[in-house]
Amino acid sequence: MPAPVVRPVPTSGYRFQIVTGDDSSVTARIAEDLYKRLVPTFAGFRTELAQRRRMVYVAIGPIALREVAGRRCDCVVIAAFTSSQVWQSVVDKLPPARAKAMTAVYAEPAPADQLRLAALLYRRPVRAAAILGPETGFLLPHLVPHLLGQAEIVHAPSGADMSDVLARIGRSEVLLALPDSAVYNPENIRNILLSTYRRKQGVIGFSSDMVKVGALATTYSEVEDINAQVAEMAARFVATGELPPPQFPRYFRTAINEGVARSLDIAVSDEARRFARPRP
Q1: Homologous superfamily, domain 111-219
Q2: Is 157 strand, coil or helix?
Q3: The organism sits in which domain of life (predicted)?
């Protein structure tokens, strides 16, 4: 007897795919939570609307971002859990038309929120410094409006001696750390934290892990915070056909190293401890 013809079942409803770069438990948790948030939006996706690109890829982490960026498809990409530095390095290598079909929620905190936290800790506006490496100069527009008049931005060329770079920010009370592998890496992070500590400079880190090893404080976002923002971006695309620009995390909470604060003679207020922007 001839084999039965198996006809493909036409897809309907969902027009998204979550792409992961590994199978770790953390990634699985991210994907599971994100899937639940995206399903209600894409269940009502209507292909007859203005959206030319009908598939939305959500890339979790740098490996997934690089993999999806290399695909030839009529699609859009929303990246998450990837630093702004890595995001920029990937997008810079793409044709302009492809880059316009991609956006992201960066992994690190917004500089504006970090500087607001510093002001709450010191109970006044503080003089802050930020170090930009060769691959993080694109962050300058995000820093200037918030640092203008009360801060200094130091550019560290490739291979620069960090002792010399840190000496150039000696007048600043706070170092705003940005995720730049050319400036902060596992080999020098402890030395940077020790050097600033000796100078009575507080470090506003870019992750809660930095706070654990000696940074003064940071704002940080949980998995659910980032996923909620990704879902909002996807919903906006489905509703309007327009992809929002890359953005820093919108929802966050605060971590403070109370021991470091005491050593710097900072009396941490409840307002600083409660500094947060919870998701709806």
Answers
A1: Response regulator (3.40.50.2300)
A2: coil
A3: Bacteria
Instruction: Give domain limits for the chain.
Output: 16-106+222-240, 111-219
The token pair that represents 138 in the structure block: 């694109």
- Per-residue DSSP letters for 22-87? ---HHHHHHHHHHHHHHHHHHTT--TTSS-S--EEEEEESHHHHHHHHT---SEEEEEEEE-HHHH
What type of residue sits at position 150?
A: Q
21-45 pLDDT per residue, tens: 999 999 999 999 999 999 998 876 5
Q: What amino acid occupies position 111?
A: P
Helix (H, G, I), strand (E, B) or coil at 126: coil
Give the Cα separation of 58 and 113 in Å (integer).
Answer: 25
Q: How far is CA 86 from the centre of its chain?
A: 10
Q: Tell me: the pLDDT tens digits for 153-175? A: 888 887 788 889 998 888 899 99
